Structures are given as C-alpha cells and as structure tokens.
Amino acid sequence: MPLSRASLGFLGLFFTAGAILLIFFTLLGGARNSTPLNEVYFLQADTGNIPGAPATSRWTFWNLCSVNSNGRNDCGSTHVDFPLDPPSSRNFGTTVNVPPEFIGTNHYFLTSRFMFPFIIIGLFFTTLSLFTGLLAMCTRFGSYLSGFLAWLGLTFQTITTCLMTAVFVQGRNAFNRNGQSSKVGTKAYAFMWTATVCLFLSCLLYCIGGTVGRKDSGYSGRKERRRGFFSSARSNSVKSQKKEQPSLA
C-alpha cells in the first residue's frame, strides 16, 4: 500500500528533527563539561612533549580541551570557531615537537575555520525545513518547499562534513607520523555523517510526498472522461436502435 502525503511528510519531519539533534550535539561539543557534550571532539592527540600543551589534547568547535581522569573533555573558556593550528598562539604557541605539516601553512587553520559558518548556514535551512514540514503533510507546495530547504541544508551540511573529515584526518596522520598517537572523534564523525544521511532521506521523502496524488488524479480524470465518452456513445446508439424498431401496435 503506497504511503500518503501525510505519512511521507511525517517521515521527512522525523529525519529532519533527527539531523538537527545530531548537528547540535556536534556543534556544542566542548562548549560545556557536561554529558554528552564532553564526549564530542574532532581530533585527539598525545601532545605531552609540546611545551605548554596538555598531555592529551582534543579539538572542538569552541576550544582546545585536555582529558580528565574519566576520559572526557576538560575544557576551559570557549572561543567561537576554534581552529586546528598547533604552532599558532591560538593553540600551543610554539613549533617545538609540532608536526612539520602544520608549520608554515594556513591550510589547517582555514579549513577548520570554514567549518563553523557552513554548519550554521546548513542548520538554519534545516530548521526552516522542519517548520515547513508541517505543511508538507497536507499540501504539495509544502512538500516541495520543505524538500528545497532540506536540500539547501544538506548541501551545506555535506560541505561541513567533508571539510571536517579532510582536515582532521590529515591532522591525525600528521601527528601519527610525528610519533604522537592520534585519533579522530568517533562520536563527532558518527553524528555528522548520520545527520547528512538523514537530510538526504528528508529531501527524498518530501519530494516523493509532493508527487503523491498527481498521477492518480490524472489517471482517474482521463478514465472518467473516457468512460463518459463511451457511455454517451452507447446511450446514443441505444436510442437510435429504439427509433429504428417498428412499432408492434
């Protein structure tokens, strides 16, 4: 049994809401030392041999955090759009024992900084799609509008996720090559890629919801027109036959 526009719109809302929740978990990771935000980070590296750095460092959107005895983020003051740039004063302020890939380049700084505005723009369009999704359950226009807004959110979310994957995987590899054990944050990557998939499903469901009823109504209309034509023809034929029959009286 095919799904109705209301069912498709509700599913689109469900996936959109799920994507927004996961994006917020990633965006606010490191902003507070409370669960689950203190478990979200992009990159972890052993930096104990870098002067002035904690034994283990974790990068988030808001700051460079150390790790407490429970294995969770121990973050200080927040700085919006915090970059991955170990040699600069924003991170460690030294080049001693810093992987050479980070020295003399703005690649890591710029790539990690561009993530923040893209995720904010994507979150804005995704939130609009959530509100218009209420219309998607009852109108074709609402379905297409929600699908378009979700597609815009998906575009910026995909850019953010790709930038995150590229820059922090490269950073992990740089630390590992320098003999400093490093890994990417499993939760941050799981949240961001799952949110991307959810937004893709939302776009698909909204667009399918916009097409529901169009083909059926068109087919029914043509069928009724054909039925009306043949019914009229048959009625005229019967009438003509009655006129041609001789009267028995």
Describe this structure in words.
- With 249 residues, the chain is of the alpha+beta class.
- The protein has a single domain (5-232), classed as Butyryl-CoA Dehydrogenase, subunit A, domain 3.
- The protein contains 5 helices and 5 strands.
- Strands 4-3-2-1-5 form a 5-stranded antiparallel β-sheet.
- The two termini are 59 Å apart.
List keywords for this structure.
249 residues; alpha+beta; Butyryl-CoA Dehydrogenase, subunit A, domain 3; 5-stranded antiparallel β-sheet; 5 strands; 59% helix; Actin cortical patch SUR7/pH-response regulator PalI; SUR7/Rim9-like_fungi
How would you write the strand order of the largest sheet?
Answer: 4-3-2-1-5
**Dominant shape:** elongated
Mean pLDDT: 88
Total number of domains? 1
- Count of helical segments? 5
- Tell me roughly what share of residues is in helical segments: 55-70%
Largest sheet, strands/sense/barrel? 5 strands, antiparallel
What gap, in angstroms, lies between the N and C termini? 59 Å
CATH class: Mainly Alpha
Task: Spell out the helices and strands N to C.
Answer: HEEEEHHEHH
Low-confidence stretches: 216-221
By CATH, the topology is Butyryl-CoA Dehydrogenase, subunit A, domain 3
Structural class call reads alpha+beta
In oligomeric terms, what are we looking at?
single chain
- Would you count the extended β strands for me? 5
* Beta-strand percent range: 5-15%
Assigned CATH architecture: Up-down Bundle
Query: How much is the radius of gyration in Å?
Result: 30 Å
